[in-house]
Write a structure and sequence with these properties.
Layout (H helix, E strand, L loop, with lengths): L9 H20 L6 H22 L6 H21 L4 H11 L1 H30 L5 H15 L5 H10 L1 H9 L6 H17 L1 H10 L2 H8 L2 H14 L1 H9 L3 H6 L6 H17 L2 H9 L2 H10 L13 H7 L5 H21 L5 H11 L5 H18 L3 H14 L3
Protein name: Nucleotide exchange factor Fes1 domain-containing protein
InterPro entries: ARM-like, ARM-type_fold
């Protein structure tokens, strides 16, 4: 069994490196002479840590470049002091900042430190993913840290480390492992979504060709569907094509029947995302599976309704009649938005048929003639699913008013 404990001395090394990183960051963010006091504190911290860290950093070959940078910093300070006489740190910082040498060196120090932290974190994560049942709490912690790191934005060095570690394959393996807890599998799914956001060009293919989508739908939890919605927004039509090709549309529609309210809400959100990005085949599959009938039923429920039920108080009615007065109009709009948000919180399925129709109308997956044809199909299916002419008239009016002609 592989050892999941940190390398000997790693906590101390990490503590020293974090202090170095903070000091170097301060030197970059306050490079001007006006910030000399702040920089003096940072430069002193770096010089003190250079002496303390000599034995610690020299034990790790990956930190050799960092040790060289710190030695260069120390030599630069000494050289400038001796060549210019006994000047203050403030004077030294003012001269160095004018040539940007201090800022560049601090940037190099921070980059080296971050690279070491990334390397150590990925090694710890990959070890834990290979034995996901060993320490669940530690694995969840590492997954959260990894997700936070990649969501900071693209970094080529980090991407190289991720590819070499094959962490995507390990994440997908854990996601598909029914023996792992739901918490671990969900955190692995969020990490996969973060990787797609990190660099779609590199990782999208692995999602489309792998088992991620099937695993999310098999797990069938609100968080799993939440991740699926994120992936649809990131990958768009190609992912919806894959979902439809694999015959997963009926399963997504069936989630609208779940007793768990959060699951039903996430299923509706997923359907709206598919409506926006889906091509003709995906929309056909949803309509054939009876999505309009199910949405009509949800809109009819206590958690449904239509937006006309929000109502207006007297102040809002008066404000609506005001033709000028920008402040009053802004205040009115804020109140209306707040009321609408509260209404949707209490009635998540309100106007859901019209919301679905609008997604098709303004989305990216359909041609104009396909949009027109689907609108007519929606209207026909609304009439078939309604229990009264009044209900049909209300929903049809929302569909017609909510989308363009």
């Amino acid at each position: 069994m592989e050892d999941h404990q940190p390398k000997q001395g790693s906590p101390r090394v990490l503590q020293v490196l974090e202090a170095l990183k903070q000091a170097s960051h301060e030197l970059q963010t306050h490079p001007s002479p006006d910030s000399a006091d702040s920089n003096s504190s940072a430069i002193n911290a770096l010089l003190e840590l250079e002496t303390e860290s000599d034995n610690i950093l020299s034990k790790d070959p990956h930190l050799s470049t960092l040790s060289q940078h710190l030695a260069t910093l120390k030599n630069l300070v000494e050289t400038l002091k001796t060549s210019k006489g006994h000047h203050s740190i403030r004077s030294f910082l003012t001269r160095c900042c004018s040539t940007h040498c201090l800022s560049r060196l601090a940037g190099s120090i921070e980059s080296e430190i971050q690279a070491w932290i990334d390397r150590e974190s990925l090694e710890s994560l990959t070890r834990a993913l290979k034995e996901p049942l060993h320490n669940e709490d530690e694995l969840v912690k590492l997954l959260n840290q990894f997700e936070d790191r990649v969501l900071q934005g693209f970094n080529r060095e980090l991407q190289d480390l991720i590819l070499k570690s094959k962490v995507f394959t390990l994440l997908e393996s854990v996601l598909c492992d029914s023996h792992c807890s739901k918490r671990v599998r969900e955190r692995s799914a969020f990490a996969i979504a973060a990787l797609i956001n990190f660099n779609k060009d590199v990782f999208v293919g692995q999602v489309l060709m792998g088992r991620t989508i099937k695993a999310l739908l098999t797990m069938a939890s609100p968080n799993a569907i939440r991740v699926l919605c994120t992936l649809i927004r990131l990958i768009k039509s190609p992912l919806v094509d894959e979902i439809e090709f694999n015959g997963e549309i009926p399963k997504i529609i069936s989630f609208l029947n779940r007793e768990d309210l959060e699951m039903r809400v996430m299923a509706m959100v997923c359907i709206l995302e598919i409506g926006y990005f889906g091509r003709k085949e995906a929309i056909d599959a949803m309509l054939e599976e009876g999505v309009i009938k199910k949405l009509v039923e949800l809109q009819r429920s206590e958690l449904g309704g239509d937006l006309t039920e929000m109502g207006l108080d007297e102040d809002d009615k008066e404000n609506r009649e005001v033709a000028g007065g920008g402040g009053g109009i802004k205040e009115k709009n804020t109140r209306s938005e707040n009321r609408e948000n509260r209404f949707f919180e209490n009635h998540p399925f309100s106007s859901c048929v019209a919301r679905f129709a609008v997604q098709l109308e303004v989305g990216e997956g359909l041609r104009q003639r396909e949009r027109r044809a689907f609108k007519q199909q929606i209207l026909t299916r609304v009439r078939e699913a309604s229990i009264s002419d009044a209900e049909a008239a209300t929903i049809i009016a929302e569909v017609l008013w909510g989308s363009s002609p």
